[in-house]
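Q: Sequence in, structure out?
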Amino acid sequence: MKHNSRSRLVETLGIVFLSLFAFILMVLVIHDDAFPSAGKSPAVAIKKRGISMKNWSLGRLDISLPEQFKIIGRNQSIYQLQVDTIPLQGKSAQELWDERVNYVRNEHIANGYSLDTFKVTEISPGFSAVFYKGNQSMPFLVTVEAYKPVPGHIFKMKFTGEEGKEDVMLRGISLTADDYRSAIENGFNIGAGSLVSPPSVNESASATFEDNVNHMRLRVYLHTAGSRLSKGPMHNIDEEIKGLGAEGIKLRVLHRRSRKAAGFSGEDALVELKGPMLPGLRYTWFYAGETANSFKPEIRIQMKSAIENQEEATAVWNLIIDSMKMREP
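A: Exactly. Output:
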């Protein structure tokens, strides 16, 4: 019964949800096209054996990275909700909530809206939501945010939709909050915990990591594939070669081949770029996914490294790709 009511709610939210939000949701928190620089000192050599690895989870994917990689941004969405976890960092959940409410209230006012359209409502004891407007050019949109306190952190939810549908939006927040579990090995991971909700047909998750010791940057991105499957980042490589060549940048494909990872047959590629301001290596693994199947999502993994670090970077890349596996529902 709960899952049936959720399906009806998702259909309603799909009407509330505007196409504007679709592309906003897919933007990575941190975006940087620059290649890492090896600097003046040589990178620390990485051997294929003996690397200390750390496990990470993102959406429905588990992946292991060398411990030098530090996360610098992540983003997840499910049921058209942006979802995240926030560590308490010495503060109480109520303090963090009060700070957030004050911040969005000030933004609401700064955007020219009156407090008549600003609202804080309690969902359950200790669990509240705030409605506010954040876009001057689209006054018909309203955003709701909610913080659910859990031991050691907060589960955050955010949704932007059409004004007048606040009750439906709150219902979606409440249902999703019921499905949150801390520190489990299955479900849709959003950081410190996961959602055990039935799969959505519109899931996405992305993260960026940096290894400042060995000068590498990694981006992981996955989302439920649409009706038209992507052909991947290497599909237009010939056009990219020509376009960069006109700018004085030489792109050379070092390898492009089929490679299985996480149980899927994807494409693995390595290209070298040489030119002013843009020397570097670009590793890519891509799987197109299956339409509307969140357990077989489109997956794009990309790593950039300085050319001087090719041996170390290739060893790390192989470890990362071989580590990938899909999480249990």
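Residues 112 and 136 are 7 Å apart (CA to CA).
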